[in-house]
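hey can u check if this looks right to u? its 172 residues, i copy pasted from the old doc so theres a chance i mangled smth
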Amino acid sequence: MDMSNQTNNSEMFSFNEVPKSVLELKELPEASLDSPFKTTALVMIVLCNFEKDENATFEMLDFLKGPDSVSPFEKQFITERLKGKYYKTFSFFNGATPDNGYVPDKPYSIVVTSNPYSFTNENWATMFVKSAGADSLRQIKLRKKPSTGQWFLNDIQCLSDIRIPTQEDPWA
């Protein structure tokens, strides 16, 4: 399916809970991974578990990476980006703002967006998510496995710093 000529497209996903294990993750309807939108939404909700259980989060990310697994470099990168800044992951969900410490509304809902350049290379996608603490959309790269039609995580590029929560800002 050639999506290269599409314009901006958005899909919203809602989750009652943050999954805590691969088993819980696989129970979600999005775990079919049959669209890059679904896989991106799952990556973001899985990252919200990082503060509670890093190992379980990496196991879930391994599932989302398909034939690949999270490399030691990627684990270090994610850890460095999130340690002491766990609010970052929740900042992508609706209702989270710097003023409320990035506490999202429940159920957790997130909008995943594509643009005209999201599908320029066959079997690859660059999807976008919006953090309430950033001015521009952030990226997640995905790769399609043609034999199954599933989209898998390739690269998390959305964890750079955002505005700190207002209550932690001495200049607020």
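The chain is about 25% helix and 20% strand.
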